[in-house]
Amino acid sequence: MTAHIRHIRLELAREPAHPNGDASTGYDIVAFLDDEGRLDTAACRDQSDRCRVRRFEHDATAATGQLRHTTGDRWLLDFPGGDREDATGFRLGEERFVPGEYVSIIAGDGATHTYLVERVAEL
Predict the structure, then answer these.
(1) Residues 6 or more apart in contact with residue 8 via CB below 8 angstroms
(2) Whole-model pTM?
(3) What b-and-e string marks burial along 92-107, b requiring 16 or more CB atoms within 10 Å of the CB?
(4) Are 107 and 87 in contact (CB under 8 A)?
(5) DSSP type of residue 16
(6) pLDDT tens figures, 47-88
(7) Can you spell out the DSSP letters for 53-88?
(8) Domain regions of the chain by residue span
(9) Among 36, 50, 62, 92, which has the highest number of CB atoms less than 10 A from its own CB?
């Protein structure tokens, strides 16, 4: 399998506070994906400086940081400002990043939100 660096756009999916979802809230992730659209752990570790994440709210950048693979196949969206700013991907290593799929992110406050993979583009 070959790893390809991609731009992944995640937008907030439907939830009680947002019954129609919210395309202006989410994450832009730059990471290596394999041919099946899954995060390529080896490539992400080898070139960790290229794996970036941007959290946006109301279409404005709220924070920028790095996507990091940690112990136990855990993926961390690591933002400056301490653990309260960080987010953890729920089983991100198993998810396929293809348009129309859903992934869950656990915010630093412990709240879990579901995001729609809106697009995946070559870089």
Answers:
(1) 27, 28, 29, 30, 31, 33, 97, 117, 119, 120
(2) 0.94
(3) beebebeeeeebebee
(4) yes
(5) T
(6) 999 999 999 999 999 999 999 999 888 999 999 987 778 999
(7) EEEEETTEEEEEEEEEEEGGGEEEEE-TT-TTT-EE
(8) 4-122
(9) 92
Spatial CA neighbour of 92 closest among 39, 13, 25: 39
CA distance 56 to 117: 15
Give the number of other CB atoms < 10 A from CB of residue 31.
26
In sequence order, what are the residues at sequence separation of 6 or more whose Cβ sits closer than 8 angstroms to the Cβ of residue 83?
108
Cβ atoms within 10 Å of 89's Cβ, excluding its own: 24
Amino acid at site 107: A
Q: Using CA atoms, how far apart are residues 23 and 12, in angstroms rounded to an integer?
A: 6
Instruction: Quote the tokens at residue 81.
Output: 């400002």
